[in-house]
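Fold sample X.
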Amino acid sequence: MRPTAPARPALPPLLAIRPLRRSLAAGVAALLMLSLLVLLGSSPRAHALDNGLARTPPMGFNDWNAFGCNVSEQLIEQTADYLVSSGLRDDGYNYVNIDDCWMTKNRDSAGNLVPDPAKFPDGISGTAAYVHAKGLKLGIYESAGTATCAGYPGSLNHEQQDANSFASWGVDYLKYDNCNNQGVPWETRYNAMRDALHNTGRAIVFSMCEWGEDNVWTWGAGTGNLWRTTGDINASFGSMLSIFHSNVQLAQYAGPGAWNDPDMLEVGNGMSFTEDRSEFSLWAEMAAPLIAGTDLRSATAATLSLYGNKSVIAVDQDTLGKQGTEVSSSGGLDVLTKPLSNGDVSVALFNENSSTATISTTAAAVKAPSSSSYKLTNLWTNAVSTSSGAISASVPGHGTVMFRVSPGSGSSVGTTHPLLGASSHRCLDAAGGATDPGTAIEIWDCNGGTNQAATLTSAGELRLYGGTQCLDAYNNQTTTGTKVELWSCNGGANQKWQLNPDGTITGTQSGLCLDVTGGDKPAGNVNGTALELWTCNGGANQQWSLA
């Protein structure tokens, strides 16, 4: 378990009146909005900013959720290194964003912002040069008030001067917060920075952190590239759920270059693996920015299996640019659908409740193209099935199952794949490449060997070595801790397995999950760790995908 994200630092006297200022600002904006509604007769819908940026939702990293004010040049540069070495840059994570506390408490004699020399000895320009050399982009933070949320100089009445600094330093992305705004209307504050950024001539993505106030989604597209639709998130299911409920209703306002932002991802910061998977799934389905808020340098293989899922990322980054919409939500069982550029639809089945439930819908309900049959690709397990129109899955409490639905047919039965473990990023493996009955089944670095090539048969077997040997629960045992071994295929119940929509593999005879022994701890995911049967518990060490 990773520690929960740090709270905002205690506010100095200047910031203690933030709630009052927020209320005053909201009140002024509400009166302005009411006047507009009277004049226009309907909610205003701004034209897109059209600065050519963020044509798909931005992806990257921000330091705040995991580090608070403990930002530094070293952290940013090491994160940039890791984005490259881990492959996340190539998956689309290309912004490395610095949040609050990067500057000194005072401007210089000319009124310019000053990077803290202890935190950024090479300045923001030196950090940007390092990040750019890695094929990445740098983001910075400021506030549309007299001070940032942590009490550093804000940009109100310094917009062009600060924008010029950002551009000269090589900044590519600005997160612009809402603290200490002095009750100045949003039009004055946010439009001023929009225009200042434009005047620099540098391409800088404009991310407005206006906390969902002033119905920002109705005017955000004319001012920025993305806008926060809610208050701050934290690493809890309740916070994630509340933000989801708010953001999912705003699909009509999102599109290429203009995105609803339900805040940074808390994936890896303390929720369960199932909850982390739900957050990532829902953010992708809602075409939200995918900004990692965890320390990626020390992220587990389980966390990286979520951030690095190319199929789910592809849903988020689909060039059609449509945010997913809710088809149904009865009893906390949510069905979302998102049209994709090639005519497919992405469907998310989300269970808000604590107990497992079956969630069902139809191809017609999710607006899939008319067809006599549909190919359902599970985006977390890569398993494929065919349906005449029904879409259904058993979804664990707080869990999400995602399908890509397309006309046609397909099946994973009879196909051969390595089975990749989420907690280890290693493959199911017959130890040492041995074929003898009783050979241990373990995890090992994926290497393409026939001892890692599993074929799912119509009888429910998992066969290795081209189909001559089966995965077997030792001696027909059905208790937790039963070892899993290789044995000659014999049609026994202890050789029958079920690949489930949630990523688990259960023994048909026992109902227990295929489990990496001790894999709920980092030390339990090394090469040679044996597999066993264990009570299903939602752990990443019980999650598998077809590689």
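Fold sample Y, listed below.
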Amino acid sequence: MAKTEDFFKYIIDGNTTKGDFIPVGAAMLNGETVTGAHVKIPLKTMNRHGLIAGATGTGKTKSLQVLAENLSDKGIPVLLMDIKGDLSGLAQPSPGHPKIDERHEKIGLPFEAKSFPVEILTLSEQDGVRLRATVSEFGPTLLSRILDLTQAQSGVMAVLFQYCDDNKLPILDLKDLKKVLHYATNEGKEEFTESYGRISTASTGAILRKIIELEQQGADLFFGETSFEVDDLLRIDENGRGYINIIRLTDIQDRPKLFSTFMLSLLAEIYATFPEQGDSDRPELIMFIDEAHLIFNEASKPLLNQIESIVKLIRSKGVGLYFVTQNPTDVPEEVLGQLGLKIQHALRAFTAKDRKAIKLTAENYPDSEYYDTTEVLTSLGIGEALISALNEKGRPTPLAATMMRAPMSRMDVLTDTELSNLLSGSKLSKKYNKEVDRESAYELLNEKIEKAEAKESKEKAKKEQEALKKEEAKQKSRSASTNRRSTRMNPVVKVLTSATFIRSVFGILNKVIKK
């Protein structure tokens, strides 16, 4: 049996699956495609997470697009983080090209141009369905990790949330949180000290500075209402295809703190909301996180621990996470070890550091008698990748250099008119794009402070009035006393009241009576 035949059997046997699957391309040997040796990914294992890596321009985005399209066709909703802004073309069919036909002929898979149901979402003021979450939904623990607070500061945050829960003060946006921080060490200082212990101004000041830093990255647009419901990511269209939800992130590339804040809140909400799936035959939702290094490069140790925990636990909810980045070393080892599917496009060895990274990357893949993995990693062409997946029993499939199939949708962005038409037909826009600013901690505490000030002012006025009355009474008493003294001092009165005068008057009266 020829080596090519052995290789064909090696690929086919290793990719046998009884359940549903996604064919992503055909295996290659010595740089040539082996037609019919299809590389397939079982849907059953798609919630085991994955990685799509490779140098710029090697085809990562197109591989992401292929997976998203096929998942949608299988009725599985998808969430894409579109940082470069080149995924909106999923809403329009591919215009086709002779090179696409040639590629698919080599692969041995039919090509069908089609569009997919797409929803455009946004974290910022760009057009799209607005994504928001309340501060209360984050809770003190997750918020403390995002803000990278110390243990003492995290304790203060927990006390603030407890106070708001006890007093029915909703913390909806950052304005509310800042107001509570200020109140705890100013107008409400005595109240906090009596019921919750003294709050240090040094701690609240440090927390406030961290909040302002988050605000500067645009978080004030993200925190608030109407809060996005994660169940709306699970929609299926009238043809039974899963919606591809694309979050436009082109304007927050330089704001990684906002990006990681959103990602963690979304994952935490999904984990808290979605029911346990157990060993399901198909995932509930697949998420692709493009430019994943933006999350990990800026993450603190507690934040990395939180990400690692979520990656480990969320697959039980039927959710698969796929990190898209230039180099696998961008992803922490603790997370990398949890990823079942690896699609590795070409890497470039320009420096000694690059060569070392390639060697480390090669060690992450199963050994193969057909490939020198280190060599293949630098010789792959555009749209070609090394693939290692998990079969239905959770075992790694044979390593295969693969010619990837082409996307069925457009490999380009939508025009302004196409985007406008897509957004105008969105049902979610009507639900989430109306800004709400209901009464919350900011307004309620201001009202409380105003009432306290009014009461204090009233009591002060009352005291001043009472003091004034006392003073008036004293003045009257002094006047009466002065009048009495004045009367006694009057010369006429003195004459009239003198003993001599009285005796003279009585003497005259006596004489008159005798006569």
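Sample Y note: The longest helix spans residues 441-489.
Also: DSSP finds 20 helices and twelve strands in the chain.
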